[in-house]
Design goal:
By secondary structure, the protein is an alpha+beta fold. 20% of the residues lie in helices and 28% in strands. It is built from five helices and ten strands, in the order E-H-H-H-H-H-E-E-E-E-E-E-E-E-E. The chain is globular.
C-alpha cells in the first residue's frame, strides 16, 4: 500500500536541548577494524570507498554518509549499539534525559549537510530494537540505498521528507508515518527548506 502525502504539514518547535554527540566514533571504528584484523585497504574494498577516506573517517577528519556508516558496520559485523556497549549498563528500565541524549553525526560528502542520529535507546549487546530521532539539515540525504534484515517504522515530527523504498518515492510531512521491510533498498532525503526530524524505530538493532 502506498504512503500518501499529507496536506496538513503542521509545525513543531525545535528540540529544547541539544544531544551529546558521540565524538569518538572514528576511534571505535578503527579499534573494531583492527580487532577483525582488516587493513584499511581490505575494509575500504568491502565498503566501496577509498582507503584514504576510511582513514579520514577513523581519524574524525571526515564524516561518513549514513549509507557508508552502515556498510562499515556491516563489514565489521558490528553496530553502534555494540561499539558503545561499554558506555551503558544493561538495566530493565532506562531513562535518557534530553540534555544528555547521545547522538551520532553522519553526512553526505557531496553537499556536507548533516544528519544527526539522536539515540532514544541504550547501548547493550542484547538490544532487540533501535530507536532514534533522525534530525536532517536542509539538503541532507542518506547517501544511497541501504538494505539489511529487519523491519522499520517511522513518524515525521517536523519538516518534509522524501522516502524512497524499492524505487518508489513517498513524500511525507508531520503526522505521516511509514513501515517497510528493511531488506528492501531504502533511502531518504530532506526536501524541506528547514530542518526535518523523524522518529525512527528498527528491529533488529542495525546502527
Amino acid at each position: 500500500m502506498d504512503i500518501e502525502h499529507s496536506e496538513d504539514i503542521g509545525t513543531l518547535a525545535p528540540a529544547e536541548s541539544a544531544p551529546r554527540t558521540m565524538s569518538d566514533l572514528g576511534t571505535r571504528l578503527r579499534e573494531a577494524r583492527k580487532a577483525h584484523k582488516k587493513t584499511l585497504r581490505i575494509l575500504a574494498e568491502e565498503v566501496g570507498c577509498s582507503p584514504s577516506m576510511l582513514s579520514k573517517i577513523e581519524n574524525d577528519q571526515a564524516t561518513p554518509s549514513l549509507r557508508t556508516l552502515h556498510r562499515i558496520l556491516a563489514a565489521l559485523d558490528t553496530s553502534i549499539v555494540h561499539l558503545f556497549a561499554g558506555d551503558s549498563a544493561h538495566e530493565e528500565i532506562s531513562v535518557m534525559r534530553g540534555e544528555s541524549r547521545p547522538a551520532v553525526k553522519v553526512s553526505h560528502t557531496e553537499n556536507g549537510a548533516a544528519i544527526l542520529l539522536e539515540r532514544l535507546t541504550p547501548t547493550f549487546p542484547e538490544l532487540l530494537l533501535d530507536a532514534n530521532i533522525h534530525t536532517l539539515e536542509p539538503g541532507a540525504d542518506s547517501g544511497g540505498d541501504i538494505q539489511h534484515a529487519g523491519q522499520e517504522v517511522g513518524y515525521i515530527l517536523q519538516g518534509r521528507v522524501e522516502l524512497i523504498v524499492d524505487g518508489r518515492s513517498h513524500f511525507l510531512a508531520p503526522g505521516d508515518s511509514f513501515f517497510f521491510a528493511s531488506n528492501l533498498p531504502h533511502r531518504y532525503r530532506n526536501i524541506d527548506p528547514g530542518v526535518s526530524r523523524i522518529l525512527w524505530v528498527a528491529t533488529p538493532a542495525t546502527f
